[in-house]
Backbone:
């Protein structure tokens, strides 16, 4: 019988992240082991790549240009499926682990995110907008990569730490772990992390969605009331 590929046994330090008022972010520990089908240590050299992705969402990116000394909206493009969060960690630089084709298939880096632009646009223009979107998300700390951020112990245990910032989108996050040997993905596994609002944050979010008209009217009335109160206070000074 031929030798069977090993299996991954992944785990995440938190399967639920609660977003409360004053949430400043959190750190996820992704860890696990790689074993042969019999449950023993795999016993061969391999690398680990971890990809953490948030819920996908549609996005529109606009390009600014200066016109008569003023910055105005120029060209724009829409993307059908943009990960709200994307992070990659690997045991070595991805270019030393797999070739570019394999890296693109498994999205082993921010250069390989499949953004799914809509409509027909020029290839160079599409590349420019895609690069701009990735750069914007990176500056917002929503896209990140850490080549060397995975530690492997005795070719059995691995661990990686990924930080979720305070501005993360709620929803289901997928943590995909890949074991790579000699440029080939030999095993993969997936875990899920639920990021959800709780307490007062959840109450406001649910109310704004379920009673959007009432929520909007209350917001306007509160703004007008605060403005009137501030004006009265300044008049008394």
Residues:
């Amino acid at each position: 019988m031929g030798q069977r590929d090993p299996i991954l046994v992944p785990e995440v330090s938190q399967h639920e992240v609660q977003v409360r008022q004053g949430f400043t972010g959190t750190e996820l520990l992704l860890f696990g082991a790689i074993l042969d089908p019999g449950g023993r240590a795999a016993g061969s050299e391999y690398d680990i790549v971890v990809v953490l992705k948030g819920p996908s969402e549609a996005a529109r990116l606009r390009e600014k240009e200066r016109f008569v000394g003023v910055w105005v909206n120029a060209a724009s493009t829409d993307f059908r499926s943009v990960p709200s969060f994307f992070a990659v960690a690997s045991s070595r630089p991805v270019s030393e682990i797999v070739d570019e084709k394999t890296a693109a298939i498994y999205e082993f880096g921010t250069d390989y995110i499949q953004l799914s632009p809509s409509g027909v646009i020029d290839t160079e223009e599409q590349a420019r907008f895609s690069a701009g979107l990735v750069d914007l998300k990176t500056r917002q700390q929503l896209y990140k990569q850490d080549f060397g951020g995975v530690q492997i112990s005795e070719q059995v245990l691995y661990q990686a730490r990924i930080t979720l910032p305070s501005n993360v989108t709620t929803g289901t996050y997928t943590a995909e772990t890949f074991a790579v040997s000699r440029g080939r993905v030999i095993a993969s596994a997936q875990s899920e992390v639920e990021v959800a609002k709780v307490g007062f944050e959840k109450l406001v979010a649910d109310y704004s969605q379920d009673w959007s008209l009432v929520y909007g009217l209350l917001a306007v009335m509160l703004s007008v009331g605060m403005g009137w109160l501030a004006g009265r206070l300044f008049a008394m000074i």
Q: What stands out?
A: The helical segments are 94-97, 100-106, 123-139, 200-210, 212-236.
